[in-house]
Specification:
Order of helices and strands: HEHEHHEHHHHH
Largest sheet: 3 strands, parallel
Strand order of the largest sheet: 1-2-3
Oligomer: single chain
Radius of gyration: 32 Å
Distance between the termini: 101 Å
Number of helices: 9
Number of strands: 3
Structural class: mainly alpha
Number of domains: 2
Shape: rod-shaped
Length: 196
C-alpha cells in the first residue's frame, strides 16, 4: 500500500488511476497553491505534488474563493477599515495549471478598493446616523429649518428670501418641506410669533 492517512489514500487512488489508464484527472486546487500562505494551501500543494509524481495526465484548476465569499466579511471590513487576505495577483501557471478567477484578474487590494468605493457612502451615512441620530440629509434639513425659523420669528425677512437664505432651491420647496416637517406653514409660524 502506498501509505495510510489522507495522502496515502490519494496515492492509492492515483496508483489505481494509472493502472486503469485514466486519460485525464482534473484537480480543483486553491489559487496560487505553490506559494499561497493560506493554511489550506499546504494540503493542495501536497496533492498537486502527488499528481505530478504519479505520471497520470492531469490538469490543475486553481480556483479562488468566489468574490461573493468576501461579502460575508464586509461588515467586519467596514468596522475595522481593512479587508484582510493573503492573495496577490493571480496569474496563469505553466503548462496545464490554470488560475480560475473569472473574467478579470484582480488583487485583494483592488477588491478592497472597489468594496470601499461601493460602500463608502453607505458606511458614512450609517456612521453619521449612529453619531447624530439622523441621516446627513436629515441633519442638513434640520439646520436649514432652524435657520428659517430664526429668520421667520424675527419678522423682517420675506418668506421667499427666507427660503433662499436657508438653502432651499425655491419658495414652494421650502414651504412644502416646512409644513411637512413642522406641521405649519412659514406664514403661520410668523403670524403666531408676532401674536405672542
Amino acid at each position: 500500500m502506498a501509505g495510510s492517512g489522507y495522502h496515502g489514500r490519494k496515492s492509492c487512488l492515483l496508483t489505481a488511476a494509472r493502472g486503469a489508464r485514466v486519460s485525464l484527472i482534473a484537480y480543483t486546487s486553491v489559487l496560487q497553491a505553490d506559494r499561497s500562505p493560506l493554511g489550506l494551501a499546504e494540503d493542495h500543494r501536497q496533492t498537486e505534488a502527488l499528481l505530478v509524481a504519479s505520471g497520470v495526465p492531469h490538469v490543475l484548476l486553481r480556483n479562488g474563493w468566489y468574490s461573493e465569499t468576501y461579502m460575508a466579511g464586509l461588515p467586519a471590513a467596514l468596522a475595522h477599515g481593512a479587508l484582510l487576505g493573503a492573495l496577490g495577483s493571480a496569474e496563469a501557471q505553466a503548462d496545464r495549471t490554470y488560475e480560475l478567477v473569472g473574467a478579470q484578474v484582480y488583487t485583494l487590494s483592488e477588491l478592497a478598493a472597489e468594496m470601499s468605493r461601493q460602500t463608502s457612502l453607505f458606511h458614512f451615512i450609517r456612521a453619521f446616523k449612529v453619531s447624530e441620530g439622523v441621516t446627513p440629509h436629515g441633519w442638513i434639513v434640520a439646520r436649514r429649518l432652524e435657520k428659517a425659523v430664526a429668520l421667520l420669528i424675527g419678522g423682517q425677512t420675506p418668506v421667499t428670501d427666507t427660503a433662499i437664505y436657508a438653502g432651499y432651491s425655491s419658495a414652494a420647496h421650502f414651504i412644502d418641506g416646512f409644513r411637512r416637517t413642522l406641521g405649519v406653514t412659514p406664514g403661520q409660524l410668523r403670524s403666531a410669533s408676532l401674536a405672542d
